[in-house]
Design goal:
Elements: H1 19-118, H2 120-125, E1 128-133, E2 136-142, H3 156-169, E3 175-182, H4 199-216, E4 225-229, H5 242-248, E5 250-257, H6 266-278, H7 282-310
Amino acid sequence: MSYNPNYDPTLSIKPRSPAPWVLAFVALAGAAGGGYWLYQGRQNARQDVTAATQRAEVAEVAQKELAQKVEKLETEKIELASAKEELAKDVQAKAGELEAKTGELAQLKGTYDNLQEKMKDEISKGDIRLSQSGGRLRVDLVDKILFDSGEAVISKRGEGVLGRVGAVLATVEDKQIQVSGHTDSNPISEKLTTQFPTNWELSVARAVNVVRFLEEKAGVPPKTLLASGYGQHHPIASNKSAHGRARNRRIEILLTPSLAPKAMGKEKLKLAQADAKDKEPPKVKAEAKDKAEPRDKAKPKDKERTKTARR
């Protein structure tokens, strides 16, 4: 063995340290763990985004449904308000009708009481009968207090009776006054057939004479009066007895609600016209416009004719 002057016997050969490999493994493990953590974080984030998107879609659907419900409720609110307004109008109209009806019944009751007071003697004798039902008032007058037997001309006594009845009827408003002539079933006597061939003619003539008297002598408005004759065909008692036939020979005055339209005030007339105009269907306006177009189209032709004539 040769001598090595640089040899140091204190130095000995040692194995390499595993620390670098451990550190490298730890670094790789850390990197892998970090990557996995980032991967999981991204997955969780994606899931959160997906869940949030789903929640947003559900919320959007719910919002649309809620908007539809709100719109429906608004429509129902408008319809209810309109129905409430119409109901209020109906209630007001019914209240007005009820008030008018109450006034009519009160007026009719006043007429009934007035006739009872003025005609109490005839009523007590059974020559006049009064009856009231609802909005109708009927006055039955036996023929003997108005006419002589077989006559249609009003007697002096009849004029006095009709004068008192007419004084009451002249104060009645918004009523139609129908005067009806009635006879018994006995045929007209031979001496009167020339003037009255049947009971029809006699009943009509008596009713017309009563109407004329009420208009001309008692001042009852003629537009409220109506004359009619029923002959023997509307009896109120049996014609088999003298008493029944006497009851059937009568003049009946019937007061009923007037069928003629009342005069409308200017303000109400304007409102009614405006309401009717609003309710006018569009089709009617369109038709009117179409009818007006041919006249407009005809104007150029008329101008051409005028120019030609000038030339």
